[in-house]
Fold this sequence. Notes:
The protein is mainly α. It has helices spanning about 5-15, 20-30, 35-55, 80-100, 105-120, 130-155, 160-175, 180-190, 195-210, and strands at about 20, 65, 70-75.
Amino acid sequence: LRPRARTTxxxxxxxxxxxxxxxxLVDVLWPDLPPAAGMHSLQVAVSSLRRFLDPAAARGSxxxxxxxxTYKLMLPPGSRSDLAEFEACLRxxxxxxxxxxxxxxxxxxxxxxxxxxVYRGDLLPEDGPAxxxxxxxxxLRLDAAEAGAALGAVEMSRADPVAAAEALERALRLxxxxxxxxxxxxxxxxxxxxxxxxxxxxRDYARVLADLGVExxxxxxxx
Length: 223
């Protein structure tokens, strides 16, 4: 596949199962071309993708479908999207958190653990600082950090500071500017009696605060 066709595929994969308007694709991929030329380039890229993905499919069917002015990458039965699975797990967690049900703690833990297992790093790193991916990449990174911090809090409430520390470390690697997560991490290490790890976490927390121009004036061990 040519580079623009590959990028078209990745753009559609970001929205797998959902339609993407052709104007959005043209704006991202051929922003400097006149509209008519951009649409023609998109048609060429889509035709190339269809032949690559599903050469036996008829026009408008198969893995890459068109409906009106939109294109959609179809996921056949049995396939999966790690991005879709990650977002589904976050949805479960947020809905249960909003409902405020203490009885759903086990379900929350399962959803958060699965979200962190699915999230294996930055979205489409091979596309570098391309504008169309940077915003989504940052959003997903912060979502994964939220999942780690939330899982750490739940694990601490379930009296499992070891699991809490692991989740909180993951969250803070993704987003070091989470004050409650730092305090909870220090408390988790103190709960397991790991004085050295607690001291290291406290020093790292102090460095983050210093970068922000804030001085650590309260005991960091308080979650």
